[in-house]
Amino acid sequence: MSTTIGNLVDRVYREYLEPNDDIQSFTVLTGGLTASASDQTVAYNADYLTTEEEDALGTGAFIEINQELMLVTSLNTAASTMEVKRAARGTTLAAHSTDDEIKVNPPFPRKVVFDAVVDQINNLFPTLFAVETVSVTSSDGYTLLGTYDSPGTNNYLISVLKAISQYTDFSSGSDQTGTIFQPVSVELVELPNPFTYTDDTGTQRTITYTSGPNAVKALQFYSIQQGHTVYVTFKKKFVEPTAESDTLSTVGLEDEYESIIMAGVAAQMMSGRDIPAATQSYITESLQAQAFPVGSGTNIRNSLLQYQQILITQARKYLRAKYPEAVEINGVNLGVQ
User: Fold this and answer.
1) Residue 329, Cα to own-chain centre: how many angstroms?
2) CA gyration radius, the chain
């Protein structure tokens, strides 16, 4: 299974977009590139290219290194170098290292696949959702989730699934190891973003979210005195990835969601495109390996979407079984499962 968004992008290529018998032309850098120059000389290893493939690197060709696309403005085959215009087609200027792969005229640019992965993750909610359990100390009034200097991703929280605490007496008992956990009534409150408050030292603070949902979240507790440790499990939107280094656990993705995202990305990549026959055959074989038939009268994109819906339905059944909706009265979660 993947651990990062970059691993998931690689898996999409490996399992759907790049069949082994139809690998696109590629070579590698023989010298690093900085992120400071808009036009630069790129030195490549000609040993990876046939004569025909090297000729395809002429003026007007596009090359891709990591997520950056570059437009070739001239080619020197004798020196194995090319002049390029950096950050083409809205991609971002970035530094690259010796031996980084150079793809020639890629049919599925990595930046496009990354953006499709982000789209698919965003589209999972509300059918599917992430789950996060946090430890909160109960208090009178509201208990802010996150702090001014470390807001986290609490603005992605949607609702409370359950809340439990371990104590001896509802009215006056203190936390104690060995006692049973009891449900706690709690309400998730949405505050304006940014939100200004006074902390326990009397200092005025402001908590601000610059990305994601435009709200600050807090909890209000009922039926429990202040100072107790409460474990609150939340339903949460998936956190939108911003880089390939983002981990799946940070985003909130379970292992079984990978197949859902990959099928959706493959379908999104094929929308309105002429797909090479080798890629079509490769995807058909991949679906058949998952015991999902692809009839000759069904186009591959629709088959991928149908397969994705089957996976989503299975995942949703699991979520509903494991995390039934809690009973709420006037917005207060009563801890009833």
Assistant:
1) 34
2) 26
HEC assignment per residue over 16-28: HHCCHHHCCCEEE
229 in the same domain as 200: yes
pLDDT score recorded for residue 337? 43
Count of helices and strands (H, E) across the chain: 7, 17
pLDDT at position 7 over 90: yes
Instruction: Select from 208, 237, 266 the last residue of a domain.
Output: 237
Contact 57, 82 (CB under 8 A): yes
Per-residue pLDDT band at 296 (split at 50, 70, 90): very low
CB atoms within 10 A of CB 260: 25
Please tell me the distance from the alpha carbon of residue 10 to that of residue 19, in angstroms, as a whole number: 13
Q: Torsions phi, psi of 262, nearest 5?
A: -65, -45
Provide the terminal-to-terminal Cα distance of the chain, rounded to the nearest Å.
32
How far is 122 from 93, CA to CA, in rounded Å? 25
The most distant pair of C-alpha atoms in the chain lies apart, rounded to whole Å, by 84
Residue 78 structural domain: 25-106
Q: At 271, list the tokens.
A: 């929308």
Q: Do residue 199 and residue 69 come from a single domain?
A: no
Burial 267-297 (b: 16+ CB within 10 A, else e): bbbbeeeebeeebeebbbebbeeeebebeee
Same domain, 266 and 124: yes
Question: Going edge to edge, which strands form the sheet with 157-166?
Answer: 130-137, 229-236, 157-166, 181-183
Output the pLDDT for position 288: 60
SS3 category, 166 = strand
Give the predicted TM-score (pTM) of the model.
0.83
Phi, psi of 318 (to 5 degrees): -65, -45
